[in-house]
Amino acid sequence: MKVIQAEYIWLDGQKPTAKLRSKTKIIEEPGRKLEAIPEWGFDGSSTEQATGSFSDCALFPVAFFKDPIRGGANILVMCEVMNPDGTPHSSNTRARLTKAAEKYRNHDPLFGIEQEYTLYDKDGVRPLRWPEGSGFPAPQGRYYCGVGSDEVYGRELIEAHTKACLEAGILICGTNAEVMPAQWEFQVGPLGPLEAGDHLWAARWLLYRLGENLGISAKLDPKPIAGDWNGAGAHTNFSTKAMRENGGLKVIEAACKKLGQFHKEHIAVYGADNDRRLTGKHETCGINEFRYGVSDRGASIRIPMATANAGCGYLEDRRPAANMDPYLVLTALLETVCGEGFEG
Ligand code: ADP
Ligand code: MN
Ligand code: MN
Ligand code: MN
């Protein structure tokens, strides 16, 4: 019997922002079969998912990747958290997306997510290589997509992360240094709704885990530094089959109008503290406004130039914050654009 290390990964019950947790189980090699990965459990009283007197929560494996850190046949297992009776736990946002994904499957939805994040030194106090004490780096302007040790901070982690995602089988499609020094972005997709959510959460886990090796911590705070420093978002790119086909631009415009009607409901699940980021400055639209436009990086929804030119393609929802839960954001987009609207 061949055994492997399986890292079971799940979302905890912290509010307002769930965090990742994981632990290792030695299991018989499952091959390519998800069903061969055993269910497991954990102490929910230590993750804000249960009380001490009734503390067991169950872990149901729902997707797995190759473990690029341990290598070999070892795996990373994405799990849903279930109650002891097998119903989804109240913190289980993926169960909700599963329903929406099934309901709107015939729209053939695709998502691509741009994850911005900020690197910190290991104690998480100042952004990586920012001056100690109360000093600041030189103002923004030369850091975005920069090169050189004085322009970008922490590239060794970005390179290790990209390589690890590729080895794991995560559909990462690009990376770039961001406008604020020590801020970076990676993108995943385009993928179906559940895959997009799973790949993003697994990619986040790998970023944190690899940061341990380098003494760098990554954070998803939507506005790490107040003032004239860019915030961190998670632009969510979305298309349906009809949007990608001839005449799709009309479908995209109709979707934008509908999204405007449910702006408040969407903002409610687009990440905590997003009000500090959506100020109307630094390539954002104010949190209480809704606008869409071609190529407009100050709009809530941007229709990319290439989409406008081709007459079909996808839309970019620029509102989600870096700390958003993709299972919730994708549910909201599906319910509003493909269904009757998102109720929250
Ligand atoms: P930006 O110009 O906003 O920085 P990026 O290149 O960072 O754009 O990200 C583009 C994103 O759009 C990627 O995540 C990619 O997967 C996604 N994407 C591309 N085509 C589609 C599509 N047809 N439907 C949904 N998402 C798409
Ligand atoms: Mn981008
Ligand atoms: Mn960006
Ligand atoms: Mn973008």
Q: How would you characterize this protein structure?
A:
The protein is an alpha+beta fold and 344 residues long. The protein has 2 domains: 90 residues, Glutamine synthetase, N-terminal domain (Ubiquitin-like (UB roll)), CATH 3.10.20.70; 236 residues, Creatine Kinase, Chain A, domain 2 (2-Layer Sandwich), CATH 3.30.590.10. Helices cover 26% and strands 25% of the residues. Strands 6, 7, 8, 9, 10, 11, 12 and 13 form an 8-stranded mixed sheet that branches. A 5-stranded mixed sheet has the order 2-1-5-4-3, with helices on one face. β1 and β2 form a beta hairpin. α1 packs parallel to α8, α2 crosses α3 and α3 runs antiparallel to α8. It is globular, with a radius of gyration of 20 Å. The model has no long low-confidence stretch (mean pLDDT 96). Bound molecules: adenosine-5'-diphosphate and manganese (II) ion (MN) (3 copies). Adenosine-5'-diphosphate (ADP) binds next to β6, β7, β8 and β10.
Within CATH, the superfamily of the largest domain carries the name: Glutamine synthetase/guanido kinase, catalytic domain
Q: What compounds sit in this structure?
A: adenosine-5'-diphosphate, manganese (II) ion
| Class from helix and strand fractions | alpha+beta
For the terminal residues, how far apart are their CA atoms?
Answer: 48 Å
Low-confidence stretches: none
Largest sheet, strands/sense/barrel:
8 strands, mixed
Shape: globular
Mean pLDDT: 96
DSSP summary: helix tally:
8
What's the β-strand tally? 13
CATH class of the largest domain: Alpha Beta
**CATH fold description of the largest domain:** Creatine Kinase, Chain A, domain 2
Name the helix and strand elements from N-terminus to C-terminus, one letter apiece: EEEEEHEHEEHEEHHHEEHEH
The total domain count is 2
Q: Which value, in Å, is the CA radius of gyration?
A: 20 Å
Query: What's the architecture of the largest domain, going by CATH?
Result: 2-Layer Sandwich
Strand content: 15-25%
Helix content: 25-40%
